[in-house]
Amino acid sequence: MIGFLFPAMLLALIILPVLWWMLRAVPPSPSHRRFPGVRLLLGLKDPESTPKNTPWWLLLLRLAAIGAAIVAFAEPVLNPRPTTGGSGRLLVLMDAGWASAQDWDARQQRLSEILAGATRDNRNVSVRLLSDPLPVDSELAFTAAQDWVGLVAGLHPAPFAPDRQGFAAWLAAHPQDPFETIWISDGLGQGDALSSVLLEQGPVSVVGAQTPRLALLPAQLSEDGLSVPVLRERAGQAQPVTLLANGPTPEGFQGVLWRAEAEFAPDETRIDVTLEMPLELRNRIGSITVLGVHSAGAVMLADSGLQRRKVALYSPRRMEEGPQLVSSLFFLRKALEPTAEVIEAGLDDLLLAAPDVLVFADVDRLSPEETAKVLEFVQNGGTLLRFAGPRLAAGTGPGMAPDPLLPVPLRAGGRTLGGAMTWTTPKRLRPFPETSPFAGLRTPDEVEIRAQVLAQPGPDLPEHVMAALEDGTPLVTGMRMGAGRIILFHVTANAEWSSLPLSGLFVDMLSRLSVSAGGGAAEVDDLLGQTWAPREVLDGFGDLTSGQDLPSVAGETLANGPRDAATPPGYYTSQEREVAINLLAPDTVLEPLSGLASGVTRDGFGEQVETPLKPVLLAVALLLLSLDILATLFVSGRLVGARAAAGIMVAVLAYGAQDARAQDDRALLAANNVVLAYVVTGDEHVDLISRAGLYGLADTLKRRTSIEPIDPMAIDLETDDISLVPFLYWPITAQQPALSADAVAKVNAYMRNGGMILFDTRDAQLGGGFGGGSANGLILQRIAAQLEIPPLAPIEQDHVLTRSFYLLEVFPGRWRDGTLWVEAPTNLTTIEGAPFRNLNDGVTPVVIGGNDWAAAWAISPSGRPVYPVGRGVDGDRQREIAKRFGVNLIMYVMTGNYKSDQVHVPALLERLGQ
Amino acid sequence: MSLNSQHLRDRAQVLAGALPPVLAYAERLAASVAIGVHGRKRAGSGESFWQYRHAMPGDSAANIDWRRSAQGDALFIREHEWEAAQSVAFWCDASQSMDYAGKKGVETKAARAQVLTLALASLLVKGGERVALLETRAGRPGTGETKLQQMALSLAEADAGDDYGSLPLPDQRVFGHRIFISDFMGPEDAIFPALSAHGNAGGEGCILHVLDPTEESFPFDGRIIFESMSGAVDFETRRAKALREAYRDRLEERSARLAEFARRVGWYYLRHDTASSARAALLWLYMAIEAR
Questions:
Q1: What's the fold here for domain B5-29+85-290?
Q2: Are residues A455 and A533 in the same domain?
Q3: Mean pLDDT, rounded, for B3-25
Q4: A46 with B235: Cβ contact below 8 A
Q5: Which residues are A226's β-sheet partners?
Q6: Residue A475 has what DSSP assignment?
Q7: Scanning every residue of chain A, which has its alpha carbon at the shortest distance from the alpha carbon of B252?
Q8: In contact, A142 and A180? CB cutoff 8 Å
Q9: Interface pTM, i.e. ipTM
Q10: Which terminal Cβ of chain B has fewer Cβ within 10 Å, N or C?
Q11: Where does a domain end: A557, A589, A621?
Q12: Would you say residue B33 has pLDDT above 50?
């Protein structure tokens, strides 16, 4: 289908026959040529009667060009939309929820087309996103369509479902003057209420969705691994999907941990995809996404609920014979086994297994060594969960040193409630306080505490209490220690002292303590009673953005009801816990838009988008005209021949090949030789100095050492390969541009892989320190900020650089006094009194200074120094030392910390002597 | 005429330096009486001493060599060797049609003609001959560096004249040798009558027919309006390629006619194109003058 915006222009095609006649009449214009031999030509007759007019094919070419131009200016459009056609006001509703994100570009395109149409028809338009808050006024804002055009690009989908009901209710409450509606819907859910309200205002047409939607539901832990339900909008044909599990990879950056392929059978709309991943990888999962689908609905965020933790159970009575049910670990084992890796062994073995949680069931005091080990475990982020028991009760009391592995000091003995010899009755639990991690959990009546150990009352006791009995005695206490924490249940882990381990509350409490995982998404119970602050939230396209500036949300709001602007999906934190709130509830079903009131016109996006053909046609016309130029030249004999064109083509191709070969040649040169390289700054003068300087340094090296570098190489960081040069001299100039991301990655890789860069600010560091204030220093700071530069320190007197060839104390260049900065020593050990460096193989990746070394090294091809250094004999000496520094530096580049190994010499000699 | 005179002279002397001095053949010495350095082994008006003889009645007193006469009683007259110099006239076409080069990088015909003229003149001057450049202020025969300089200046100054060069008619001056350098593209009337007149005036002659390579090969095609250098003459063709043969025939005809004329009067004719070496042409000219 082709339509024309200005069909009247096509009338101009009438002139084509006229043009035909005119062009035929006018032969190609002759060229004028000065030629002394013209006298000899006089009187000659053209022997061949070439047609006086233009050849027919040239005519056709020109007519085609002009025809194409005329048709182009008639603005033909492929697959034109029927124009809005109407008049009066137009409301464009967009669903703009997560389901619209997948084909958001098409929606924006469609909106632009509608606005363009409305502009042509001179209509007033209001554009409204159903995911936006409801209008505050009672009127919809209609303005000229042009006003909206600029806003289209800024519209984006929300990470939740559009609020159709709300808008329908608002519109019903605030009737407007009549308007026409175009509703760009996401093609899902119910549309009855909204469509009927809209119909009362005027004609309604609904635009459906372009691509079928995919959605991920919250994952569940299953026997085989992680099971992720995938939904699609409608059945029909088989459809493959690829799920990606993302998270921090073992290498430490965010990446794809796992891929899972699955396929919808033709009649399925829901499949469960199982990710059979190793546990270690699975625990790293941050989110699961569908490959190629960018929508908040196709992102499943994972939290600790999906992690299986490694729980180590330790009980000194473990080896004892006895009935299972009274074993102190039985209930723990039963509660944890479905959702966690449970290991039981001796304490040393358990600690070696690096568990997340260490559970002590009625453990007495440990030996000091063991205590230290467990303390270290806790300090490093482990959780120590302790249960009381007779031994613990017996092992504590006043007069004894407080056990560092207990959150609160305990009174000796403990107490018994409701026994045969007491008046008291077994106590129940008091509702959990707000500040407790258990806040929001229901305290069932059947839980009775019959015996417990008692905490020593103290001023700081209340802040350690996480759960208490009716009478206020602490039942669960905890404290943070380092990165980890210690939690004490003041009862046993079996049913001996209480019925707590028998109740469901016990499992919930363990879950709250992140000891066991819920085996799926956060449950309602997990959220209740706490205030959750969003940390990161999804946008409509499924990308995580910071949620720092969003208000916190009550757990009830978060738990109930669909996601909306106040509760977007994302990661929420409360106290010490973090939960992932996902967009879709586990029971979500994707169903196509239904319930539209009768009288609503439906419109699809269609397969083809409206394509203006004007640019294409104009391009064709231009192409034809340039062909015409060639043809005219040919006809008038001025085309020197196809040979020239062929020659140009060959030259172009050869140039490309030559370029590639030049790169190869450079690489070969650098790989087969030692080559000193400098960074091209763009300042011709500085580059010249660099070249002359490295030439001079190479000369010095050749004379004095066995390093024989070839001529220096200029390196453009953006285009050249630097991986093969061992040393890069980088003078800083004020005009140096920032590096591109590629170049930054290249330089970082270069430094990681053992290359060395000498940064030279060339300003004698007059501003004080590098980057202290001189212009070049600031540039260096800007460049260095992009790079992975290790911590730096002024060079010490014992650095290898001071003795890698010559013994040096200062490092002058053309200037004398600048400080030299190298990687700070991080791991300094002393062997037999001599400091011994064993960091990164001893080679600093950067050396930074400002002494303008290249100028001091620089020699002309005839071997004479180019720049003056200092004065008289002192100056000569300074130049010599500068050269020695260069030699030392390159030696250091080549041999690394070899000289540092000399500290071992006495030991080696001694060993040899024996 | 973009070449300045010094440049022109330099180039010409470079070319001439490779050749030995040439002694001009002076067949028609009697007619062209002039002081020259070529001894005739006879007493005559020259500069070098030939012999003393007794003064005879009728001798001018001014001719008596008083020093020799003082040695004896007789009066002696000092006789000089009779020396005759060849005078060579050049005509170097300075018309606009000479100022043409078919391609960039190729000399114009005018430049080539001037260089050859000066080179030969330089050779001749070294041999003591007298040279003249017809139709210019260097038209009087002369010799020596100054004459060369004058010729070079005249050539450099010579303004682009007519479209095509027309040969000057011979005047009363007598030359031993006449050298005509031109493209001979002009109308026949402007060439052959004058040539005949020069031929009749006596003396040897050389015709150097200088052509541009494009004038010989005519590598044109398509619809072209050919114009003479001043634009005074033009000719339009729709398909230049088709005229190539006819043009070349006419050029050959012109060339053949010149050669025929030269053969008839005992002159030499050479067709020389600017793409070939100037040295070859100079050598030929040198040989042509020396041949007698």
A1: Rossmann fold (3.40.50)
A2: no
A3: 53
A4: no
A5: A221, A275
A6: E
A7: A40
A8: no
A9: 0.72
A10: C
A11: A589
A12: no
Q: Please, what's the b/e burial string for A823-843 (b: 16 or more CB within 10 A of its CB; e: otherwise)?
A: bebeeeeeeeeeebbebbebb
Token duo for residue A657: 């090949």
Domain boundaries, chain B: 5-29+85-290, 39-83
The closest CB to that of A39, out of B186, B222, B243, belongs to B186
* Residue B160 forms contact with A (CB below 8 Å): no
Q: Do A289 and A325 reside in the same domain of the chain? A: no
**Does the pLDDT at position A418 exceed 80?**
no
Q: Which of B227, B237, B250 sits opposite A40 (nearest CB)?
A: B250
Nearest partner of A161 among A491, A568, A438, A488, judged by Cα: A568
A637 touches chain B (CB under 8 A): yes
How far, in whole angstroms, is CA B206 from its chain's centroid?
8
Size of interface A-B (CB pairs under 8 A): 107
> CB–CB of B223 and A28 under 8 A?
yes
The CATH number covering residue A337 comes to 3.40.50
Secondary structure of B35-90 in HEC code, one letter for each residue = CCCCEEEEEEEEEEEEEEEECCCCCCHHHECHHHHHCCCCCEEEEEEEECCCEEEE
**Residue range A658-705, pLDDT digits in tens:** 566 667 777 888 788 888 899 988 888 889 999 999 999 999 999 998
Mutate to test the interface with B, among A26, A34, A52, A635 (most CBs of B within 10 A): A34
Among all residues of chain B, which has the CA nearest to that of A29? B223
Poorest-pLDDT segment among A102-116, A677-691, B59-73, B145-159 = B145-159
Q: Give A42's contacts in chain B (Cβ within 8 Å).
A: 233, 235
Question: Which residue shows structure tokens 């400002």?
Answer: A850
- Quote the pLDDT of residue A522: 53
Q: Looking at CA atoms only, how far is residue B22 from chain A in angstroms?
A: 35
Domain final residue pick, A451, A478, A512: A512
Q: Does the distance separating the beta carbons of A47 and B235 come in below 8 Å?
A: no
Put simply, whether A136 touches B (Cβ < 8 Å) is no
Q: Are residues A232 and A291 in the same domain?
A: yes
pLDDT in tens, A164-182: 888 888 888 888 888 888 8
What are the pLDDT digits (tens) for A492-538?
Answer: 888 888 888 888 888 888 877 765 544 444 566 667 777 888 888 88
Interface check A42 vs B, CB under 8 A = yes
**Which tens digit of pLDDT belongs to each residue from A810-833?**
888 888 877 888 887 755 555 555
Nearest chain A residue (CA) to B108: A36
Is residue A15, in this structure, part of any structural domain at all?
A: no
Backbone angles phi, psi at A371, to 5 degrees: -60, -45
Report yes or no on A646 lying in a domain. no
Same domain, A218 and A277: yes
With CB atoms and an 8 Å threshold, state whether A41 touches B183: no
The residue range of the domain holding A526 is 214-308+522-589
Please indicate whether, in this complex, the C-beta atoms of B185 and A39 are within 8 angstroms of each other: yes
Unique residue bearing structure tokens 């730096």: A792
> Does residue A40 sit at the B interface (CB-CB below 8 Å)?
yes
**CA atoms of A99 and A106, how far apart (whole Å):** 13
* Average pLDDT of the residues of chain B: 76
pTM of the full structure = 0.43
